[in-house]
Structure formats: C-alpha cells, structure tokens
Amino acid sequence: MSLKFHSHPLSSFGQKAVIALYENDTPFEFCLVDLANEKGRAEFLALWPLGKMPVLQDDARGRTIPETSIIIEYLAQHYPGKQVLVPTEPEAALQVRLWDRFHDLYVAQPMQRIVEERLRPADGKDPHGLATAKTHLHKAYDILDREMGSKTWAAGESFTMADCAAAPALFYANEVQPFGNSHAALARYFERLMARPSFARAVEEAKPFWHFFPKESEASK
C-alpha cells in the first residue's frame, strides 16, 4: 500500500488527518505510533525528528509529509476523491484555510494546554497558564457560536478541511471545558460533526485508548 499514516487513535491532530482519508475512502495503512516504546519512538523520530504526530508517508512518490493541514492539502492534490476538502476557487479556499487555522490555533492549542496541566505534578502546576488557556478557549467558543448560527459547516455549506480540524478539536475541548449549555449554535454544529461517519469512525477507534486521557482531579475543580 502506497500510503502509510503514522499516528495514534487518541491524537486529536491524528484524527483531523484521518477524517480526510476516511471522507474519500483513500486506501492507507495505519501505523500505530507508541512514543512510550523506545524502539517505536526511535523509528518515528527517524521518520520525523520533531516527533509530532501525524506523519503521512507516500512510498509511491517518495514523500514524507508532516503537519495535518499539509497532509490534507497533499491528499487533495495527489489523491482526490468525491469530497472536495480544499476548494479550487481561491476565495472559498481562503475561507477553508482560515477556519482550519482557527480550530488548530484557538481551539486545539488551548485545549491541549489544559490537558497538559492535568498531567503536571502537584508541585509543577501553572494556575495562571491554565486560566489563560480557559479564557482563550471561551473566546473561541463565543466566536464560533456566532459563526455557526448561519452556516452548516465551518466554512459554509460543504464539509471541508476546516471541519476535519474542528471535529477533534471541539470533541476534546468539550471534555475539558464544556460548551453545550452556553453556546447553542456551536453545540448544534458539534452534533453534526459527531454524526459525520468519518469522524464517528475516528471516535470509535479511539475508544480502546480513552482511559489514557487525563481526567480532571477533584482537587483542581
């Protein structure tokens, strides 16, 4: 098989790229990355020294592609399918890239900061950084709630790369800072994402690993 996708089912950014693969039924081999395993970690670092998941390896073209948005753009160029995830029309493509970056930078990043805080030892907690991340996430929710009051999907009426970014980012963000009761339009959009077969499959594949997701301790609530 030409395409090898190196990731972990629990990875939010891995889910973002795998949604794109599932949307177009693109054949690929899933290569599980276990950074806790010394041999597996060394092999992945040899493939991509920064050690960030996911990475797409295209043996047919002799290419190794990191970074989720670049992976999806690469698939759109070289392995297109029925679902156009990156429009060819410039203005439409610009909107897709805008909301793709928004979900990566302003939803996924503060969400990950909150998760990282849960993993810190008691003597290494950063209450100020945690509060800042929660504030940024709430601001992102406010913006998205206004936006999604008039759109079906993140960049308009078609499911695109921006929705691939939104689905896992919002899934995990809702776990660390729920938005359902305070942001009705955003909550309805999230329901549409959860019902999308490509994302539902990614969520199902992550279930066996869900116990690794750090829960909030009672002391920090």
Structural commentary:
- The chain has helices at 12-23, 38-47, 68-78, 90-119, 127-147, 161-176, 184-195, 197-206, and strands at 3-7, 29-32, 55-58, 63-66.
- It is α+β, with helices and mostly antiparallel strands and 221 residues long.
- A four-stranded mixed sheet has the order 2-1-3-4, covered by helices on one side.
- Helix 4 (90-119) packs parallel to helix 6 (161-176).
Main beta sheet: 4 strands, mixed
Oligomer: single chain
Q: What overall geometry do the principal axes of the alpha carbons give?
A: globular
The tally of strands reads 4
One letter per element, helices H and strands E, the order comes to EHEHEEHHHHHH
Widest beta sheet: strand line-up = 2-1-3-4
Kindly provide the radius of gyration, computed on alpha-carbon positions and rounded to a whole number of angstroms. 18 Å
Mean pLDDT over the residues: 95
Quick summary:
The protein is an alpha+beta fold and 221 residues long.
List keywords for this structure.
221 residues; alpha+beta; four-stranded mixed β-sheet; 8 helices
SSE layout and pairing:
Elements: E1 3-7, H1 12-23, E2 29-32, H2 38-47, E3 55-58, E4 63-66, H3 68-78, H4 90-119, H5 127-147, H6 161-176, H7 184-195, H8 197-206
Parallel strand pairs: 1-2
Antiparallel strand pairs: 1-3, 3-4
